[in-house]
Amino acid sequence: MEEEFSTAQSSKAGRATKNGVHPSIDKSLRTMLLAVLFQVSWPTRLTSQQIIEQLPLYGDSPKRALYRDIETLTDTNVRYLPEPDDANIA
Questions:
Q1: Is the peptide bond before 43 cis (omega within 30 degrees of 0)?
Q2: Which pTM value belongs to this model?
Q3: Which of 1, 30, 49, 51 has CA atoms 20 to 30 A from the CA of 69?
Q4: CA quadruple 33, 78, 15, 55: dihedral positive or negative?
Q5: How many angstroms separate the CA atoms of 28 and 34, rounded?
């Protein structure tokens, strides 16, 4: 059963980028891993480059895909997210 949900299995279908990543297929995996990364790195603030280095599933346009994944998790566009030290973070 574990093999059914591995990254190797999810990457077999669809069109791959030069890194072997399938952005549409791997989105749910990337989004889940991004959420986990945010949880384990708290309260340390991560840059987009640090996140991309930790999650190698971002393909040809990693910053764009990362921003879409953050928007999926937060339901907010990245440029409208509050800073971590914002007084009204809640």
A1: yes
A2: 0.61
A3: 1
A4: negative
A5: 10
